Amino acid sequence: MLPQSSHLPMQMIPASLSEFPHDRDIVLYCRSGVRSYHACTFLMQQGFDNVHNMEGGMIAEFWTEWDNVNMLTQLGHFPLPAES
After folding, report:
1. Which residues is 28 bridged to in the sheet?
2. Which active-site residues does the annotation give?
């Protein structure tokens, strides 16, 4: 789970609408970004205009981080662990 986030299963969103703020941005994410996309669409249909989907979900976030570490390693900023 990301820092300062809350876990809420998608099926609980309709019953929890009163818990979503109208005065702050809401960023939804899931594993791949598909469920959070649908949840964003639902919230926008309910009148929320401060909703954002983390495109690609946690998979994209992981690979972005992995690509950054891999690139820095190739550039010599991080040594690769010695193989035994």
Report:
1. 53
2. 30
pLDDT in tens, 57-75: 878 766 665 555 555 555 5
The model scores a pTM over 0.70: no
- The residues spanned by each domain of the chain are 18-74
Neighbours of 43 (CB within 10 A): 19
Q: Where are the alpha helices (DSSP H) in 1-84?
A: 34-45, 57-74
- CATH superfamily entry for domain 18-74: Rhodanese-like domain (3.40.250.10)
CA pair distance 60, 64, nearest whole angstrom: 6
Q: Which residues contact 8 (CB under 8 A, 6 or more apart)?
A: 16
Q: How far apart are CA 22 and CA 10, in angstroms?
A: 19
